[in-house]
Amino acid sequence: MALLDVRDLRTEFRAARGSVTAVDGVSFSVDAGEMVALVGESGCGKSATAQSIMGLVVPPAGRVTGGQVLFQGQDLLTMKPRELRAVRGKGIAMIFQDPMTSLNPVLTIGKQLTESLRLHLGLGNRAARARAVELLETVRIPAPETRLGSYPHQFSGGMRQRVMIAMALSCEPRLILADEITTALDVTIQAQILELLRDLAGETGTAVLFITHDLGVVAGMAERVNVMYAGQIVERADTVDLFHRPQMPYTWGLLGSVPRLDQARGGRLRPIAGQPPELSDMPPGCRFSPRCVHAQDVCRRSPPTLTPVRGADDDPSRLTRCWGMQAVPEGGWLSLDDRYADQPTEEK
Ligand SMILES: Nc1ncnc2c1ncn2[C@@H]1O[C@H](COP(=O)(O)OP(=O)(O)OP(=O)(O)O)[C@@H](O)[C@H]1O
Ligand SMILES: [Mg+2]
Questions:
Q1: For residue 267, is it within any domain?
Q2: Pocket residue to mutate for ligand 1, from 11, 14, 47, 95, most atoms within 8 A of Cβ
Q3: What is the pLDDT of residues 216-266, one digit of tens each?
Q4: pLDDT tens per residue across span 290-333
Q5: Is residue 348 part of a domain?
Q6: Are 154 and 242 within one domain?
Q7: Ligand 1 proximal residues by C-beta, below 6 Å
Q8: Is pLDDT of 343 > 50?
Q9: Cα of 203 to ligand 1 centre, how many Å?
């Protein structure tokens, strides 16, 4: 049984006119101790997915309208608030992009850490303080005893994110949801924080759902990747396989915008041309088709489903949502073979 099994999740938000579906039938799983990535451009619904899992999407702003979020076999979506609180502390912890919004600015780091330890693990004052020092040491914050007395604003951005990792680990969760945790940091600090999270998760056997818009940072982190576009998963693969043979042209596009060591310096990165569709105005066919240089009639007409990749029968979890890799409704296949010769994101 998977640790986390998200099935056909649907989340809607209230919009100016009616509502928009930000998460549209998303399914994926995370096994115990595994690190899984959720990748996609800004606005594709990554945070909405994470927030739905954590029970943080609440009316009137939004609502989870369908699906299941099975955590250790139990559906979080149908749990009573009290049960859910227990899971949130001990079972699943979340780290956000901006620690300033999740840390309380008027309480010292020590107070926030010990509070959480007392609440979730039932530790006494002294034990909680000792554990807090230990945790700050674990995330490599120098002089932890002294630092317990500091306020969030007295830490640098990278240090604050370390504190957040310490907080997340404090309750010994089975799963950490890490949502763009290094986006606001510079590259060197980013690498250090990611390494830290990976090492600590590895040591403690904690599973991580790693959310990012940057496919470049996925390679060293996750074992499996889910690529998201416009509220849906459009490709799923082992990380190595995704980099070796991306199937969906959107994924090729994401890869094209990642710097590579094996290409000549001065080579240009190619951002994907165009914008994702408005949630309130989805194209009738493939949601990526308006930006896809390989789109054919069928792509613009009917929406492809997420299906096993042709030729990857050995790996049934290898999926793509692309007509180019599926039998088209008229019968027969669209050939993608010639596409590999192309530059995926090159403008025609
Ligand atoms: N509280 C809300 N009310 C209305 N719409 C929302 C709300 N939260 C998210 N949305 C919409 O849902 C869509 C998905 O947003 P989400 O924050 O999940 O994107 P994301 O993939 O996390 O992007 P980013 O990389 O910028 O963090 C967006 O179109 C966004 O405008
Ligand atoms: Mg987000």
A1: yes
A2: 47
A3: 889 889 999 999 999 999 999 999 999 988 889 999 889 876 665 565 555
A4: 999 888 888 999 999 998 887 666 777 899 999 887 655 555 55
A5: no
A6: no
A7: 13, 22, 40, 42-48, 61-62, 180, 213, 279
A8: no
A9: 33
Q: How many structural domains comprise the chain?
A: 2
The residues with which 93 forms a beta bridge, in sequence order, are 176
Q: Are residues 73 and 181 in the same domain?
A: yes
Exposure b/e, 194-211, CB count within 10 A at least 16 = b: bebbbebbeeeebbbbbb
Hey, which of 9, 13, 24, 180 would you mutate to test ligand 1's pocket, going by the most ligand atoms within 8 Å of its Cβ? 13
- Residue pair 255/212 in contact (Cβ under 8 Å)? The answer is no
Strand partners, 31: none
Q: What is the pTM of this model?
A: 0.91
Q: How far is the CA of 22 from the centre of ligand 1 (A)?
A: 7
Q: In which element (H, E) is residue 170 found?
A: helix 157-170
The whole domain housing 324 covers: 227-339
Task: Grade residue 345 by pLDDT with cuts at 50, 70 and 90.
Answer: very low
* CATH code of the domain containing 210: 3.40.50.300
Distance separating alpha carbons of residues 176 and 117, to the nearest angstrom: 16
Given a cut of 60, whether residue 134 has pLDDT beyond it is yes
| Protein residue with its CA nearest to atom 7 in ligand 1 | 13
- From 39, 46, 232, 280, the mutation candidate for ligand 1 (largest count of ligand atoms within 8 A of CB) is 46
CA dist 223 and 177 (Å) reads: 15
Query: Which ligand has the shortest distance to the CA of 44?
Result: 1
Atom of ligand 1 nearest to the CA of 14: 4
Q: What is the rounded distance in angstroms from the CA atom of residue 240 to the CA atom of residue 244?
A: 6
Residues 185 and 110 in one domain: yes
